[in-house]
């Protein structure tokens, strides 16, 4: 697999970025949206953990999952997409707070960009959005952030070794913001 090849080539795997994003709100596209966005990110995260954990021969590191601002809010225009992105946030934070994962030397953080200048935004249609006209107006109001801003946000989380379980939103309107999500421990 890819992670094994990286370890063979570079000696270790220390940074992973899971960035999967498609939209699809009508059947059968909604199932593919769940498969790619949530299942794909989950699979990539768990595989990366296996290769990075210091208790399994890895050298530790950081996994940064790319979610979406849509995962932080209610989004009636793209409910399936939003649900997958909320799931990525919950997965990332749950693993980051897991004592086994923490002690294995792996940090996990999540970047939640708003609308980014990508093909996903350019291809909004009736298959991936429940109301294209409203979505277009919303995008115009919020603005589109550049890929470079998202990369800067990502790199900040890579470099800051004190960040674990961080949720960072980046948008044209609000810039970069660390988002506070209340954590209630499971007893």
TrEMBL record:
Gene3D superfamilies: NAD(P)-binding Rossmann-like Domain. Catalyzes the NAD-dependent dehydrogenation (oxidation) of a broad array of hydroxylated polyunsaturated fatty acids (mainly eicosanoids and docosanoids, including prostaglandins, lipoxins and resolvins), yielding their corresponding keto (oxo) metabolites. Decreases the levels of the pro-proliferative prostaglandins such as prostaglandin E2 (whose activity is increased in cancer because of an increase in the expression of cyclooxygenase 2) and generates oxo-fatty acid products that can profoundly influence cell function by abrogating pro-inflammatory cytokine expression. Keywords: Oxidoreductase. It catalyses: resolvin D2 + NAD(+) = 16-oxoresolvin D2 + NADH + H(+); lipoxin A4 + NAD(+) = 15-oxo-(5S,6R)-dihydroxy-(7E,9E,11Z,13E)-eicosatetraenoate + NADH + H(+); prostaglandin A1 + NAD(+) = 15-oxo-prostaglandin A1 + NADH + H(+); resolvin D1 + NAD(+) = 8-oxoresolvin D1 + NADH + H(+). It comes from the Eukaryota. One of its GO terms (cellular component) is cytoplasm. Its EC number is 1.1.1.141, 1.1.1.232. GO terms for molecular function: 15-hydroxyicosatetraenoate dehydrogenase activity; 15-hydroxyprostaglandin dehydrogenase (NAD+) activity. It comes from Magallana gigas. Belongs to the short-chain dehydrogenases/reductases (SDR) family. Pfam families: adh_short. The keyword Calcium does not apply. This is 15-hydroxyprostaglandin dehydrogenase [NAD(+)]. Transmembrane segments: none annotated. It is an enzyme of class 1 (oxidoreductase).
């Amino acid at each position: 697999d890819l992670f094994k090849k990286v370890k063979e080539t570079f000696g270790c795997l220390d940074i992973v970025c899971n960035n999967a994003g498609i939209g699809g709100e009508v059947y059968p596209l909604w199932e593919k949206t769940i498969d790619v966005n949530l299942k794909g990110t989950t699979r990539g995260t768990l595989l990366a953990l296996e290769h990075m954990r210091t208790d399994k021969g890895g050298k530790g590191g950081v996994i940064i999952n790319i979610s979406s601002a849509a995962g932080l809010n209610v989004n009636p225009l793209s409910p399936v997409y939003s649900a997958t992105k909320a799931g990525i946030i919950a997965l990332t934070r749950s693993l980051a707070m897991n004592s086994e994962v923490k002690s294995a030397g792996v940090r996990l953080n999540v970047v939640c960009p708003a609308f980014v200048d990508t093909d996903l935004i350019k291809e909004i249609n009736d298959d991936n959005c429940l109301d294209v006209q409203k979505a277009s107006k919303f995008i115009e109001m919020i603005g589109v952030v550049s890929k470079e801003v998202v990369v800067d946000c990502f790199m900040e989380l890579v470099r800051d070794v004190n960040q674990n379980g961080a949720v960072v939103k980046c948008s044209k309107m609000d810039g970069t913001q660390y988002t506070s999500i209340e954590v209630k421990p499971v007893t």
